Amino acid sequence: MKQEQFELLYRDRWQRFEGLLSQLERGSAKAVAGELADFPGLYRQVCQFLALAQERCYSAHLIDELNDLVLRGHHQLYVRQTGFWSGWGRFVARDFPRLVRQEQAFIWTAFGLMYLPALLFFIVLQLAPHLIYSFMDPAQVMSFESMYDPGSEHIGRDRESDSDFMMFGYYIYNNISVAFRCFAGGLVLMLGSIISLVVNGLLLGGVAGHLTNLGYPQTLFSFVIGHGAFELTAIGIAGGAGLKLGYSLMVPGQLTRLASLKAAAATGIRLMYGVILMLLMAAFIEAFWSSNGSLAPAVKYGVGALLWSLVLFYLGFSGRSPSSGQRPDA
After folding, report:
1. Strand, coil or helix: 256
2. Alpha-carbon distance 199 to 46, whole Å?
3. How far apart are CA 16 and CA 30, in angstroms?
4. Tens digits of residue pLDDT in 83-138
5. Contact indicator for 174, 280 with CB cutoff of 8 Å
6. Pick from 9, 35, 11: nearest CA to 22
7. To which H or E segment does residue 153 belong?
8. Are 89 and 176 in contact (CB under 8 A)?
9. How far from the centroid of its chain's Cα atoms is residue 68's Cα?
10. Is 92 within 8 Å of 274 (Cβ atoms)?
11. How many separate domains does the chain show?
12. Under a CB-based contact definition with an 8 Å cutoff, are residues 193 and 185 in contact?
């Protein structure tokens, strides 16, 4: 179907939707109270129109117009109409895992950029242990050795006077800083995200390889396995969102670069909402569970395996449902 025919058939629908949107945005919901029941259905139709316009390579102007309506409609439907807490509940239970699966190509790439260097550096250090000093200075190495000494009362920290609550705040700050570097770095044609992911992978592999050489592997892995399910997964998702930003600038398709970046940023920001929630969970577990040296390693491994299973099941299956919408006739 040509664009002229498409607009002739369907423009009245998205113009009606735009009219409802404008009145809602002005706060005059009473004026359209009788039509509000049609709003979700119209929103789904506009989403379908956008998908068709992109698939058929219609003009950038039309795609930008529909994309703007979808973003405005999403705000009204999921934030304003459903309320703050119900909107967040829906996002956590359904929208976030769906979005992760939708962007899995970028996210799997991010995981590869982080875990492959980690594995390679770990192997290299088993063959040449001294190379750890090519990546970290001696003071950093000694700090990690002290933190993961099996005789330490609180594993994974080198500040004995800090309370669990203080460490909770420190972990939140540190983890969210890493995640935002992985995300925002994508604006530099993906290079910032790539570098952040690789450096974090080298750090992970370097610490694991060096402590394994010292005979501390159980101390390290029993510490990491619990909160790592949320922390490492969240950083990979943040990196994937950053790669999408850079890709949208490099390969905008039929959109202008600005419109492509806006669409990618809208998706990336929603992914980052979920990333922040996961990092809050990770910080809580790390401060109050992982660092407790009195817990048996077997208990930590068991709980860690359960948490990894829950995270993978959540991201892989939560929010799945049969599609209820129908595409407009071609």
Report:
1. coil
2. 42
3. 16
4. 555 668 888 999 999 999 999 999 999 999 999 999 999 999 999 999 999 999 99
5. no
6. 35
7. none
8. no
9. 23
10. yes
11. 2
12. yes
In a domain, 94, yes or no: no
Q: Are residues 62 and 158 in the same domain?
A: no
Counting DSSP H helices and E strands in the chain, the numbers are: 12, 0
Same domain, 104 and 64: no
Looking at the structure, tell me whether residues 28 and 140 fall in a common domain: no
The pTM of the whole model exceeds 0.85: no
The residue with tokens 């609180």 is 154
Q: Domain span at residue 66?
A: 3-81
Q: Which two tokens stand for residue 48?
A: 């379908």
pLDDT tens, position by position, 35-77: 666 777 888 899 998 988 888 888 988 888 898 898 888 877 7
Quick one: 112 and 237 in the same domain?
Answer: yes
147 and 265 share a domain? yes
Same domain, 133 and 270: yes
CA within 13 Å, CB half, 192: 18
The span from the CA of 62 to the CA of 104, in Å, is 27
- Tell me the three state secondary structure of residue 154: strand
Q: How far apart are CA 184 and CA 169, in angstroms?
A: 22
Q: Is residue 105 domain-shared with residue 47, that is, in the same domain? A: no
> Does 73 share its domain with 113?
no
> Residue 201: inside a domain, yes or no?
yes
